[in-house]
Write a structure and sequence with these properties.
By secondary structure, this protein is mostly beta strands. Helices cover 0% and strands 53% of the residues. It has strands at residues 2-5, 9-12, 32-36, 39-44, 50-64, 73-85, 92-102, 104-105, 116-117, 127-129, 136-138, 143-148, 152-155, 163-164, 168-170, 174-187, 193-204, 209-215, 219-220. Strands 2, 3, 4, 5, 6, 11 and 16 form a 7-stranded mixed beta sheet that branches. Strands 7, 10, 12, 15, 17, 18 and 19 form a 7-stranded mixed beta sheet that branches. It is elongated, with a radius of gyration of 18 Å.
Length: 222
Amino acid sequence: MKKNITRRVVAAAGITGAVAMGLTSLGAGGATAGPLPGGTITKTLVDGTPVTVQLFDEYVNVQRAVTNVATSREVWLSGKVRVTVGGKAEGGSVNAGYLVGCQVNFGADAGAGAGVKVPFDGSDPSFTDSTGAEAGFSLGPGQASYFPIIEETSGSDTAYKDYNVSSYSFKGQKGGVTYSQQKFGLDGCAGYASAKAKIKVTVSTDAVKGVVTLYGKPFSIG
C-alpha cells in the first residue's frame, strides 16, 4: 500500500518538536488578517481514558480573489493541533479541517437569525465535501462545505483504487499536526460567508472506541 500526502502538513508524535511555520505576507490589500482564539476540549471516555484536544496558533488571512469578483474570496489558514491521551490508549487519529458556509449560522455566538443552521455531520443535502490541494468551491445562500486540512490517499498502482483517508494516525500518548498557509477559494457567495475549525480525534482502547470533536470559534471571511 502506498500513502501520498497531498497537503503541506507536518505531523509529529509530539508537537513540541515540530518546526513552527508562520504565515507569510500575501501582498498588499489583504481584506482580513489576524489570529484566531483556537480552543481546548478535554473528555473522559467511558473506560476512564482522558483525551485532550487543543487548537492553537490559529491564524487566518482573507483576500479578495485575483479575479476581483465581489462574490469570490481566497482564504489562507495556519494553525497547530495537539492531542494528548491517557489511560491504556496507545495513539489515535486526527481529522482536521474547516466548515465553510454562505449565510450559514455556525453556532449561537454567530448571531441570532444569522442564517440557515447546517448539521455538523454533513447530513444536510446542501453540505458538500471539498477536496484537493488548494481547493476551490462554490456556495450559494444556506450552503456549507467542509475543507480538510489533512488529505491523504492510499492504494496501490494496480489492484486498489486510491481513496481519501483525510486523517493522521499517531502512536503513543501525544500527537499533533501543524498546517501553514492552507488555501481555499470560495466562489458564488453573494451574502456574508463564515467558517470555523473542526478537529475530530478518534481514540481506541481494548474496551472502547471514542470520538472527541473540537470546534473553533466562527470567523467572518467577508
